[in-house]
Design a protein that fits this description.
Number of strands: 13
Helix content: 40-55%
Distance between the termini: 53 Å
Radius of gyration: 23 Å
Strand content: 5-15%
Oligomer: single chain
Strand order of the largest sheet: 3-10-6-9-8-7
């Protein structure tokens, strides 16, 4: 097999060097605003990645490879299987070294699907860490000439009509001749290119059309090595059943002493570092919560600023919102009851927008979208939205929430505030949101933590096919607020989970 360093045209070498320089500067947002970006090497902790031997067996069964699909239970099964998995972990250098029909994986393209629950760190590993390791010459040097990392939600990815646009190389194709050369090189040397597409769950398969949709489905760039990351949602499994991937990988966040290692990295200059490490050691529930990198980052930042430690994931999002209000008002507010009514309405305004964008499958939105839903400049000043970098190719300002989990939380907070809605309507909204994101259980604990006990009881009944037995109501309600999946609640209550729906 020829080396990737042989016969590389000058323009490709230029692309390669520019990509390397870009990836070497990778930073990690450890907090909620741009001034909290840290160099990746200062804070990154290797996350646990598991191979797909046991997982892929259940994967094939669920996705319909061999038996009928049971898609409503995918997320729960994947989470359980990952936690029980004890086989040797995967490392990035050997990600593509798998047995393939006809030989080793280094002789053919390899398609990898990376699954992880929200906030477990798949984006950090594959959108930032892996490209940086390649740029520094530590991985995949003899395999790939180019490693290109893109986000599914990026507008230019969705609009791409050819390989040059999808790989983000339009600035090198200023003439028809240069564009034709680049396209021909990519097509003829696709086995020497790795494309990472992050966040397939942030779009619907119906909208994953055009050129990028054909690449994901294996109809275009068939020789390329592809890494797709996603939450384990129903649509993703249907896609993988239609075009099987060669390898399935599960990212399960921090394990063992990695939580304390991460805290030590992020808070090395904080006088509160040892206090937080002591709290983690004394509270296994807190340590378990912080095994999810998103929560670990948020809790570190909130603790440094004086916010109380959370008892559940909902507390984290509440503190994030309170922190935003505090910064806008130049006051330190840690209690939602002390937030003025006008500011609460502001939060609901953002939450309404978050919900409507989820309904429309919009993770990225324009100023026109915000004007349509009357998002005021004051609401924008909360700092819960971040702006994409404007490029010469597309100067239109585009925005998104700082994390999809935050958008989901704000949507849930708005839904919970709609006291005039019946439990059946609320139940429909939760199922609708859950069906759109593939994560019904994401909204369930967030919502039930916000509504009254009576409303939670009625909502619980509306989400199950049979009414909850009176004697089980208290236990089921408390379990719901701990994030117990609906199918387990159904078993507890003697009913059956209705699951997500695509009804309009």
């Amino acid at each position: 097999m020829a080396s990737c360093k042989d016969d590389v045209p000058a323009v490709i070498k230029e692309v390669q060097e520019n990509l390397r320089e870009k990836y070497k500067k990778a930073t990690l947002l450890v907090g909620f605003s741009a001034d909290q970006e840290h160099p990746l090497e200062d804070v990154f902790v290797n996350l646990v990645m598991l191979p797909g031997s046991k997982l892929s067996t259940e994967f094939r069964e669920i996705a319909g490879y061999g038996s009928s699909a049971d898609l409503d239970r995918i997320e729960h099964i994947y989470s359980r299987a990952a936690q029980q998995h004890t086989v040797e972990k995967i490392d990035l250098p050997n990600l593509f070294n798998i047995r393939m029909p006809g030989g080793l994986g280094d002789r053919v393209s390899v398609r990898v699907v990376v699954l992880a629950s929200g906030g477990c760190g798949k984006t950090v590993v594959f959108l930032k860490h892996a490209p940086r390791e390649w740029a520094l010459g530590r991985i995949w040097q003899d395999r790939f000439v180019l490693v290109v990392a893109r986000e599914f939600s990026s507008p230019d990815v969705k609009k791409a009509v050819d390989a040059v646009a999808l790989l983000g190389l339009k600035k090198y194709a200023v003439t028809d001749e240069s564009k034709a050369f680049l396209n021909n090189y990519i097509l003829r040397n696709s086995s020497k290119i790795c494309l990472i597409l992050d966040g397939l769950d942030e779009t619907s398969l119906d909208s994953c059309t055009g050129y990028v949709g054909d690449v994901v489905r294996g109809k275009e760039l068939v020789g390329i090595s592809l890494i797709v990351t996603s939450r384990p949602a129903n649509e993703i499994f249907k896609l993988c059943a239609a075009k099987p991937f060669n390898r399935h990988v599960e990212v399960i966040g921090f394990q063992g002493d990695q939580v304390s290692q991460y805290v030590s990295n992020v808070m090395k200059n904080s006088e509160k570092k040892n206090d937080l490490l002591g709290e983690i050691e004394a509270d296994p529930k807190l340590e378990a919560m912080m095994s999810t990198p998103f929560y670990a980052a948020a809790i570190c930042e909130l603790f440094k600023e004086g916010y109380p430690l959370p008892t559940c994931s909902t507390d984290v999002f509440d503190s994030m919102v309170l922190r935003a209000v505090s910064r806008m008002k130049a006051q330190f507010i840690t209690d939602w009851n002390k937030v003025e009514r006008a500011d609460q309405e502001l939060i609901y305004e953002v939450g309404s927008f978050a919900m409507h964008m989820l309904f429309h499958r919009n993770i990225v939105f324009s100023k026109d979208d915000m004007d349509t839903y009357k998002v005021s400049k004051t609401a924008m000043s909360l700092g819960l939205l971040v702006q994409y970098e404007v490029t010469a190719e597309d100067p239109t300002p585009l925005f998104r929430f700082s994390h999809l989990a935050l958008q989901e939380s704000l949507a849930s907070q708005f839904v919970a505030a709609c006291d005039g809605l019946s439990p059946d309507v609320l139940g429909w909204m939760v199922r609708k949101l859950g069906g759109l994101t593939g994560h019904l259980n994401t909204f369930w604990p967030l919502l039930t933590a916000k509504v009254s006990n009576a409303h939670a009881d009625a909502l619980l009944s509306s989400l199950l096919l049979s009414a909850v037995d009176e004697t089980m109501r208290e236990e089921a309600r408390e379990a719901a607020r701990r994030g117990v999946p609906l199918e387990e609640l159904a078993a507890m209550a003697g009913g059956t989970a209705e699951g997500s729906t695509n009804d309009d």
